[in-house]
Amino acid sequence: MTATVAIRDLGVGDADALVALYQHLNAGDVPPTAEAVRAVFAHPGMRHFGLFVSDALIASCNLAVIPNLTRGGSSYGVIENVVTHAEHRGRGHGQAVVRHAVDQALTAGCYKVVLTTSRKDPAVWAFYERCGFDAGDKRAFVIRRR
């Protein structure tokens, strides 16, 4: 029997599976409150995508579409929280969900899509380059709350 693979938008009903998957992104992360989950999934312009193998959530990322007053008023997209379950890496699932998010951003009229990562592993950077991102195009700077 061949497993079915599908990518779809996630909703609040997928939150438990998504939070569990995030342990493969940031082990030991504190789970969000139910109120925070509802607020995130109700946020306009924010979408979460999940790749399912059969009925199991295997990979995910989110896309924020940001309104903009430059570039003729064209919005831009930001992809974050890219994760694939550790037991399913190296099979193209992460690449598929990222490319889906990029396609959705372009369909929404975004003139660019930005992705950031805190990973220092060159293999992770190579993964994003295989997804079509150009590491030399922009530089990101971050301030974190202490």
What fraction strand? 15-25%
What is the H level of CATH, i.e. the homologous superfamily? Gcn5-related N-acetyltransferase (GNAT)
- Strand tally is 5
CATH architecture: 3-Layer(aba) Sandwich
Total tally of structural domains: 1
Largest sheet descriptor: 5 strands, mixed
Strand order of the largest sheet: 1-2-3-4-5
Broad structural category: alpha+beta
So what's the overall shape?
Answer: globular
As a whole number of angstroms, the C-alpha radius of gyration is 15 Å
Order of helices and strands: EHHEEEHEH
CATH topology: Aminopeptidase
Number of helices: 4
Low-confidence stretches: none
Distinctive features:
Acyl_CoA_acyltransferase; globular; 5 strands; alpha+beta; acyltransferase; 146 residues; Bact_Acetyltransf; transferase; Aminopeptidase; GNAT_dom
Characterise this structure.
- Keywords: Acyltransferase, Transferase.
- InterPro entries: Acyl_CoA_acyltransferase (IPR016181), Bact_Acetyltransf (IPR050832), GNAT_dom (IPR000182).
- It comes from Roseateles asaccharophilus.
- This is GNAT superfamily N-acetyltransferase.
- Pfam families: Acetyltransf_1.
- The protein is an alpha+beta fold and 146 residues long.
- It has one domain: Aminopeptidase.
- Helices cover 27% and strands 25% of the residues.
- The chain contains four helices and five strands.
- The chain has a five-stranded mixed beta sheet with strand order 1-2-3-4-5, with helices on both faces.
- The longest helix is centred in the C-terminal third of the chain and has 15 residues, at 93-107.
- It is globular and about 50 Å long.
- It starts with a strand and ends in a 16-residue tail after the last helix.
